[in-house]
Amino acid sequence: MRFVLAIAAFVLAAVMIVLGIAQRTILLEPAFTSLSSTVTGTAKYTVIDPSALAASSGSQTINVRGDGPIFVAYGRSEDVAAWIGDDSFATVGLSEKTGELTSTITAAVTPDDSEGATGGGAGTDAATTDAAAAIMNPAGSDLWLDEYSGTNSVTTTLTLPEGISVIVASDGIEPAPASIRLSWASDNSTPWAGPLLAGGALLLLAGLVLYLLALLHLRRSRRPRRNVPRGPRMPRLPRAPRPKAIKASQITSRRGIARRVAILPIIVVSGLALSGCSADLWPDFSTANTATATPTPTPQSTDSVEAAAELPPPAVTVSQLETIMSEISLLTADADANLNTETLATRFTGPALEQRLANYKIRAVDPAVAPLVALAGAPLTFTLPQQTNSWPRVVMTVIQDENDPSIPTMAVILKQESPRTNYQVDYLFALEQSAHVPKVAPAIVGAPAIAPDNKLLLLPPDELAAAYADILVQGEASPSFGLFESEGDNFRVQVADLNAAKIAALPSTASIEFAAAAGSDEAVALATNDSGSIVAVSMTETETVKPVDAGATVGPAADALATKALSGITTTAKGFSNTYRDQLLFYVPTAGSSDKIVLLGFAQGLITSAELP
C-alpha cells in the first residue's frame, strides 16, 4: 500500500509541476497588446483620439517614430482641437468594425475671401488669425497637461482618462511623424502557478518519504524471525572469495536509487525558490488588487464628477498652473536682472507689464533705483481658475514663499487671450496682511467669470475703480465711502501719508494737486461661494506740481530718483506731472448684503513723469 501511495504522490506531483510550468511557458498570455498606424500625407499635426487610447484597458504606452524632432503632448480634447484650429491635421482613431487603428486627414479651413473684404472688424479678426497662425510649434503651450520631446523616437507610458487627446508633431513646419504605435500592458499574471509548483514539490517530497518508508518496511519483513525452531546443524561451507571493490557509480541497489531520487526534489525545490518569489505566481487576496490605476492628468476630481457634470471645466489644473508659474518666475527673474523688455512682454500684459516696464526704464537711467519685488513661482497656496471652454481665460493664484519672509504674499491674475498664446500676468498684487480671502470653489471645479457690468453685486466690477478713486480724493465726503471697509485698508493710509509728506516738503513757491481715476484696463471678476466676487481693477493717480510765483521753478525732491529718471528734469518753470498706476484687488459682496467691499491687495508704481507743456 505504501508503494501505491508513493506512486500516486509522484504522479500527482508531476502533473502539478507540469501544469505550473506550462502556465509560465506555453500557456502564458502576452504581456502587451499593441496596435499600430502609419499616417500618410503632409499634415503637420496628428491627434490620437480618446477612442484609440481606450482600445484596451490599462496604461497606454505611446511610441512615435519619425525622422528628426518629435513632439508629443496630451491635454483636454477640446483644448487640443482649439489649438489646432483651422489647420489641417491627421486623426488616429479606432475602427469599431475591425478593432484596428485608422488614420484620417482633415483639410485646413480656408477663410472665404468675401468675408475678408467686408472691412470693419474683419481686419482685426484677420490680424488675430495671422498672429495665431504664426505660432506653429505646439511645444511649450500652456494648454498641455504634459509634453515630451526627442529625436527620431519618443516613447512614454501614460494613464489617460476619457476626454484626453494626444497631439503629435515635429516642429510645426515639417509633417508630423508617421509611425504611431499604442501598447497596453495586459495582466498575464499566473496566480496559481506558484501554488501548483509548491504543491507539486511538497507532494514529491511526500512521495519520496512514502517510498523510503515502503522500502524500510520491505527490508524488515524479510528478516528472520526470533522464535523460529532450530533444525539440525548444517556443516560449515567453505568461505567464498572476496568480490572485487566496485565504484560508487556502479551501485544499482535500492539505496543508491533512493539517494538519486532524493536529489530530484532538492533540484525542484531550489528552482522554485529562485523562480517562485515573483508576485505574479501567487494569488493576491488583499483589497489592494481591486484599486484602479490613477489617471496621469487629474483635470476633474472623481468626487465632483456628478456635481460638475454640466459645468464647463476649469481653465487649468493645479499641476498645469504650477508649471506655468515656475516658468514665469524664471523668466521674470532673468528679465529683471537684464532689463529685457522683450522677454518680459511674452509673459506680462496689462497694468502688471506697464508697471514693470516703467521700473526697467527708471533703472536703465539710474541703477540705484531698486527693482520691483521678485515673483516667486511656488508654492501656490490658493488657485481659482475660471470655468470656461472658450477664450480669453483667466485664473487667480496666491503665492507665499515661506522660505523668504522678505517676499510678501503675492496674488496673481493671469490671462490667456487665445489657444496659441500662453498665460500672461495681467495683475500682480501684494496681499494685505489682514486680508481674508472668502471661500471659493475648489480648483478642480473653478469659478465662473462675472461680467464687468453685473448688477447683482454691491457694485458692478466696472464701477469699482471709479468709486474707490473718488474716496481717495474726497475721503469721507465721497458718496461711495460707506460701501468700502476702511479698517485694515493700508493703501488709503499709505496714499494719505505720502500725499501729506509731499505737501509738507513743497516750497511755498509751488503748489501740488492730486487726482485719481479709474484705469482703462478691463476689470477681472471671479465668483465666490457666497455669490460675491473677487475683482481686480486698475486705477491711475496723478500729482501735478506747478510754480505759483512768476519766475519760480520747481523740481523733483532730492530723494525722488524715479521721477528724475523718467522726467529727465531737475528744475522747471513750467511744472511737472507724475502718473502712478495702481492695481487693486477687492472682495465685493452680493447686492443687498450688509457686508462692505474689502481691499485684499494692491500694488502701486510710477509709470510716467514729464514736464508740463
Automatic annotation (TrEMBL):
Keyword Transmembrane (UniProt): yes
Protein name: DUF8094 domain-containing protein
Residues annotated as transmembrane: 192-216, 261-282
InterPro entries linked: DUF8094
Positions of the UniProt region annotated as Disordered: 225-244
Residue ranges of domain DUF8094 in the record: 314-607
Record has Phosphoprotein as a keyword: no
Keywords: Membrane, Transmembrane, Transmembrane helix
One Pfam family of this chain: DUF8094
